[in-house]
Specification:
With about 160 residues, the protein is α+β, with helices and mostly antiparallel strands. The protein has two domains: about 60 residues, no CATH class; about 80 residues, 3-Layer(aba) Sandwich (Aminopeptidase). About 30% of the residues lie in helices and about 25% in strands. The strands form two sheets. A four-stranded mixed β-sheet has the order 4-5-6-7, with helices on one face. Strands 1-2-3 form a three-stranded antiparallel β-sheet, covered by helices on one side. Strand 1 and strand 2 form a beta hairpin. The longest helix is centred in the first third of the chain and has 22 residues.
């Protein structure tokens, strides 16, 4: 199995596992072929959506955007979007993810994202899953390391 096929199989496996867990708690998900969504649950450690294809469009993910626990944040400077992030609330915390920038430094982007999240989700801890340069930027913004997030892959047992 090639790397692309193995990656796709790993994504499908993860989505099916999340769906099984959600179903066992009474929150069945929906597979669209390119996206899995279970927007109604707040189970800790389980996502509400998984993209099954790297070319999923925003139009396909509208159910996620309609989820009141999801906030899409845009950072604008002089009328132009220069960055953004996703804030998702579940399990008593708000996670920050998908942080991106274009034409803005890390410090003002992260500071602005934290302020925006604090406004839309007041009183909740903000958590994230950064690594490398993104982790350094998050730490500069006041985040502390709690522990690692691990995603494991194992090669074929056959030689």
């Amino acid at each position: 199995m090639g790397a692309d096929a193995l990656l796709h199989a790993a994504v499908i496996n993860n989505a099916r596992w999340c769906d099984a867990v959600c179903q066992s708690h009474g929150y069945p998900g929906e597979f669209t072929g390119r996206l899995w969504i279970s927007a109604g649950h707040a189970l800790p450690f389980y996502p509400n959506a998984i993209t099954l294809s790297p070319d999923v469009t925003a139009a396909e993910a509208t159910a996620l955007l309609d989820d009141p626990d999801c906030a899409v944040l845009a950072c604008r400077r002089d009328g132009a979007q220069v960055g953004g992030a996703i804030a998702y609330t579940a399990g008593g915390v708000t996670g920050i993810s998908n942080v991106f920038k274009s034409g803005i430094a890390d410090d003002p982007l992260w500071a602005g994202a934290v302020r925006a999240i604090a406004r839309v989700r007041p009183g909740l801890p903000i958590v994230g899953y950064e690594r490398g340069e993104d982790l350094a930027a998050a730490r500069q913004a006041g985040f502390t390391v709690l522990g690692p997030l691990r995603i494991w892959a194992r090669g074929s047992a056959a030689p």
